[in-house]
Amino acid sequence: MWIGAGTANDPCAMFGFPQSRFMPCTECGASVERGAGTHLCEPERLVEFRLFQLREEIARFDEQFAAWLATARGHFAAWIAERDRR
Amino acid sequence: MDVKEIARRLAEDPWRGKLDEVLDLVADDYVMHVPGAAGPLRGRDGYRQFITTYLTGFPDGTTTVDDQIAEGEIVATRWTGRGTNTGELMGIPPTGRQVTIEGISYSRIADGMARETLIIWDNLALLQQLGVVPETVPAQTA
Fold this sequence. Notes:
The complex is a heterodimer. By secondary structure, chain A is mainly alpha-helical.
């Protein structure tokens, strides 16, 4: 099949607003070709996409957590956790 | 190295970490015509600027040559670009989305060096896939 060929029976392919042949899945962000059948999200890809969307929150949490660990309570909690780990 | 191979390397190798090597194939007076640009990009710096812009937006990006036709100094290269948008692209914040873009480069190659390129790709599709022009595909989770 030649490049970019949609289905001959799809009027939108010829007369509608141009649509991308590929689109990212709304759940996992993977590139999916139109008309290629059912797309199943790979779990790893799902996690990566979600983590990317939350990257700023994760960064803020890391900063806040590090700041809390630097407090007296944080030091003590870390000490207790290390003791329990052993 | 024939003109097709030079054109192929220009299309694919910068995305394989070989940008500096590829610049050896770009002439000092190279001119690159890019859709939407205010004017042509010139020389090795212009080529590097173009590649760097899209490498920044798609650090894992790849380009695959699908087909080539050559006559004399002229090479037409049909390619498909793929990448994950994890970096800023022309002011658009990163989306984390994977994109697939098809395009054609029309190059003039003489004396073993790229002299001029007209590169055309589906910009609307790129913007749709990045969500600048909204469009989505329903998904099912395994």
